[in-house]
Design a protein that fits this description.
single chain; 270 residues; alpha+beta; D-Maltodextrin-Binding Protein, domain 2; 2 domains; two-stranded antiparallel ribbon; 10 helices; 25% strand; globular; Polar amino acid transport system substrate-binding protein
């Protein structure tokens, strides 16, 4: 009798497999704040389009889950969700998540897009950024929570960072209140906010802080189980992004203007 019950229990364990492993559905999280052109909480951006189409080509269904970014990364790391849509190539992220790798680094051709980070300051501030170092910087550099690319780059340059802001709007309000000399934000969202009267006292400095690719990353245990299928998702993203029709398709998904920092005369206006 006990052996019969044990056999039933083992059969039951075999029937309980991860949902994604049943080639049924992937649950991918995105930020609860808009980061054009890549992701939006209530509609598809360019990264969401790429992921949705690539997952469909593999034969799986897809669900996007909207969460604060730090919670999103934690949920994927713990296995509560299958993946995160826009993950930076940092040592921290590579240690916790499965990313498309080539020679130990993220495979740039399989990214879902590029992000450009810029420096914001109050108009009466004397702090400068020359593309390599800050001058007249007296405080930690503030940025949004969970963006490890900023934390890693600031540490490399020898600067202190503070990632206590929970949204781009809160970040810029902290700057207006004098909580820091400068803040880091992502384009084109920074330019969109700088056009609002509330933030008229702020300006973007002309040289970008950094440019980096961003990737669809998966839970490591899921990737170990479904490597062949998930590799196919990354390969489909690469093929779609490098297809002749992608530039026009990308503009259709996000027709807004993408600001490119570094143009002469760019200091005062967004």
């Amino acid at each position: 009798m006990r052996q019969w019950l044990l056999r039933l229990w083992l059969l039951g364990l075999g029937a309980v497999t991860p949902l994604a492993a049943q080639a049924d559905r992937l649950r991918i999280c995105v930020s609860d704040h808009a980061y054009p052109p890549l992701t939006f909480p209530h509609r598809d951006g360019q990264a969401q389009y790429l992921i949705r189409r690539a997952v469909g080509e593999v034969g799986w269904q897809l669900e996007f889950v909207v969460l604060p970014w730090r919670r999103c990364l934690k949920a994927v790391t713990q296995g509560d969700l299958d993946g995160a849509a826009t993950v930076a190539d940092t040592a921290e992220n590579r240690s916790k998540l499965a990313m498309p790798l080539r020679r130990g680094m993220a495979h740039a051709a399989r990214s879902v897009g590029e992000v450009v980070a810029v420096v914001i300051r109050r108009r009466d501030s004397q702090t400068e950024w020359n593309g390599k170092v800050f001058s007249a910087l007296r405080t930690p550099v503030i940025h949004e929570a969970g963006i490890s690319a900023f934390s890693e780059r600031l540490a490399e340059l020898g600067y202190r960072g503070l990632d206590s802001a929970h949204s781009p709007e809160q970040l810029m309000r902290m700057l207006l209140m004098g909580r820091a000399d400068v803040a880091l934000g992502l384009e084109p969202r920074v330019s969109e906010l700088l056009r609002q009267p509330e933030f008229a006292g702020l300006q973007r400095l002309p040289l970008p802080f950094m440019r980096s690719n961003t990737y669809l990353a998966f839970n490591k245990a899921l990737y170990a189980e479904q490597r062949e299928h998930l590799d196919r998702v990354w390969m489909a993203i690469e093929r779609i992004r490098h297809s002749p029709e992608w530039p026009e398709l990308a503009r259709t998904i996000y027709p807004g203007r993408l600001h490119t920092p570094g143009v002469a005369g760019d200091r005062q206006e967004p």
